[in-house]
């Protein structure tokens, strides 16, 4: 390190911008070099006051002058050159102009030279001929234009023609009209779509691709994709594909293929959207009825005529790859639904990986339209490299890759070797150990108000099985009960403490309940909500207890929303679609109608769904409001990014920008409980499980205020035990939410949020020393960020010895419910600290149920414990 | 037709909401930055930030999302606008001087915040001897707390050059502060 080099690096060194080794090297150098020390001292003498002075700027919060702000917001956007859709009447017709001027000339000359009047008749005949000539000249021009590349400026287009391909509609307009470049085929869910862009990606697209007319538009036809074809309809689709290929290659559209197509010239997103708006408005009424009708007819026809050729392809694929386990229940169900037995062949790449999970079939390639005639290849040649196949409930997605294809919702599967999907393995639950207060007197944790684990446990027990130990969370089961804590009137939170000798743990232990209850807000205090419903419409959702329950939940919610609240709906299966643009909650009929249009089939591309929902939520962002994505799903993501971290990272990023998310599970199946819980955690929302209509009612109606309106975020609780009074302690549950003691005041550490009127309960097992009768046991501190002002607040409350009852029987019945609930949860998880058995829990719970006859939850707990006891024998 | 109109209205609403979110998020750092670049001329800083936001608003379409590139763009355009202001101001001042009018249209002097530390005040006053490019890196690093990489993203220069620029700026400040202190001692 020579001197000059060192001098240049002094500033970055002082600012801490150097890599670690360089910092150490600089440090060593400074110890030896007096000149550099002097320079560093001089630089520091400037840098320090400069940094301090400039950092002080951050204390000031300058705002843009309100008038200036208004002026900024009034600025109109620069007009984008949007394509004009000209009607027949507005279309410029130069020949008409020419004819009119000639006529005018003739009339003028006739008036001027009456002598020529005799030849007026001849003149009229000549005019008629001229008009015909001009008309034929135009036809020739159109024909010659076909050979020319498509005009690059969208506004140059003067014509938009459409033609269908299907039920008696073919040839509505001549194929090959210069401007007509996208072929539409309204097959929908069982149909085939050829078009440059996925219309479902478009905010203004029709909600379900089934009814989405695909419009042939400009050059967008050139990267064609075929999407969404039913297994049973494949034979028919094969024929259509051939026809479509012929149509594309033979009917004059060929000239529009790859030679004239340049992907970079594709219209920009916004321009495209504008265009779509115009085109949709024009075409929807024309197409909706026709496509819906044809789709229904095709479905009926297809069901009576299952396709043999396609099944043989699938069977051959199966024989090629024997790795797949074909005994998956859902898979067989899928086959039965289609009236055939199909097995899922494992394929290559991610699609193949998805196939291994036995969900859906997917041929993961795409078609280049320039090779449109080759579309039939994978169909007619079963041995062709069909890269992946996943059998779905009733859907096969068939596409073939092309390098030039436009951006697609499903990234093309790279030809990587087949790797197994990360399978959710049950992790053995971890338990908080006893901590000696001399070693560590702090217990810090982030709050968690989710109760989904309770519902899952209840569902498992009711269906006659003990829940998997790793799905049971003590804190969730504790928080599922109401302990009668009153909400504070003025303060944001109030802490309730209650303790008694433990009835279940090792002898000599005391149980302490810490309840933190949040303030209850009136409806008028609530902020306007912008809710983005993200609804899973994969095939498995079609059961009434899933999509039906989602509808019930939505309807219940609509009844309770304020007129200022708005919501939008995004659905996702293979890919995400926008079902409903932001709509005021008062337009209930429109919202429910949009919801009823949802059709369930396909796989579960959660990643695309989340991406799209957040994108929509960001577009409709209501500053200062409650912006929330509400995910309703029944299962595990099986398409898209299978890496949960990808999804979680996105959710986390959006949460920082003010969009939170809540997750609601419906139905029972292979739901990825851990992923959904993490999603809710990252999105700072709740994770609930709607296992009955009553639960939907409870969550969406009774807990509405809490679910939608947070009073505080990043709520952390720290208990500082007094070593004099408490020898050791153990927290029950909250293993996933434990924090280090120093993280309590670190406001960059995120924690859970508490909604209006929600309560959080934590239980500690304590070993008290004799001094505990007189001295305080410790201090409870709660630190949170107010949702309304964003200010950080903290308060503390001492745990006085009077909170401790002499015996469990002397406590309030609610405390005993908490004790039983925790013991039950610990028992289900197989905690080594739980020495008692279910029978003891039942014994303690029985009288409590009598006392708490009003609260049905205590009775429910008793029935669950009884069921668990019976099952455990 | 009605649907198209509704959609255009909705798009316009979304666009405005998005713009408002951007203004809320960026007005403070931009105003702070512009105020310092303009040597604490608050009114001019408001002008500059307003102009920048108008430019943004003209190009803002519904569906755009604020990201890192937006931040880079905003700071870069704010800096350019501020430099334009400084130059215009210098021209005006030359004209004023020529006409012999003692107009107080110079930068500075409109707002002085009381600083507890005399040395701090002197160092901050010395900021105006720096060239705009130097002032830019000093402010982005020490006022906005950005890393060298982020600054390089805004100025469009290499990280090494940013480091060098900052070092030269601090050296220059140190020399100037020493000179003023010596002048005061005499």
Descriptive account of the structure:
Chain A is an alpha/beta fold and 873 residues long. Chain A has six domains: 48 residues, no CATH class; 53 residues; 130 residues, no CATH class; 94 residues, no CATH class; 250 residues, Gamma-adaptin ear (GAE) domain (Immunoglobulin-like, Sandwich), CATH 2.60.40.1230; 173 residues, 3-Layer(aba) Sandwich (Rossmann fold). Chain A contains 25 helices and 19 strands. In chain A, the strands form four sheets. In chain A, strands 4, 13, 15, 16, 18 and 19 form a six-stranded antiparallel β-sheet that branches. Chain A has a six-stranded mixed β-sheet with strand order 9-8-7-10-11-12, with helices on both faces. In chain A, a hairpin with a 5-residue loop joins strand 18 and strand 19. In chain A, helix 23 packs antiparallel against helix 24, helix 23 runs parallel beside helix 25 and helix 24 packs antiparallel against helix 25. The radius of gyration of chain A is 35 Å and the shape is globular. The N and C termini of chain A lie far apart (75 Å). Chain B has 186 residues and is mostly helical. Chain B folds into two domains: 108 residues, Rna Polymerase Sigma Factor, Chain: A, CATH 1.10.1740; 73 residues, Orthogonal Bundle (Arc Repressor Mutant, subunit A), CATH 1.10.10.10. Chain B is built from seven helices and no strands. In chain B, helix 1 packs across helix 5 and helix 3 crosses helix 6. Classes of the chains: A alpha/beta (873), B mainly alpha (186). Chains A and B meet through helix 2, helix 4, helix 5, helix 9 and helix 18 of A and helix 1, helix 2, helix 4, helix 5 and helix 7 of B.
What's the arrangement of secondary structure elements?
The complex is a heterodimer of chains A (873) and B (186).
Chain A: H1 3-8, H2 10-14, H3 20-32, H4 34-57, H5 66-73, H6 94-112, H7 120-146, H8 234-250, H9 269-303, H10 308-320, H11 329-337, H12 349-356, E1 361-364, H13 377-380, E2 396-399, E3 435-436, E4 442-446, H14 452-462, H15 474-479, E5 493-501, E6 510-518, E7 529-536, H16 544-560, E8 566-572, E9 576-584, H17 588-596, H18 606-619, E10 626-633, H19 644-656, E11 659-666, H20 673-682, E12 687-690, H21 693-702, H22 704-708, E13 710-721, E14 726-732, E15 738-739, E16 752-755, E17 759-768, E18 778-786, E19 792-799, H23 813-829, H24 838-851, H25 856-872
Parallel strand pairs in A: 1-2, 7-8, 7-10, 10-11, 11-12
Antiparallel strand pairs in A: 3-14, 4-13, 4-15, 5-6, 6-17, 8-9, 13-16, 13-18, 14-17, 18-19
Chain B: H1 2-37, H2 42-59, H3 68-98, H4 118-126, H5 132-143, H6 148-155, H7 159-185
Helix pairs in contact in B: 1-2, 1-3, 1-5, 2-3, 3-6, 5-7, 6-7
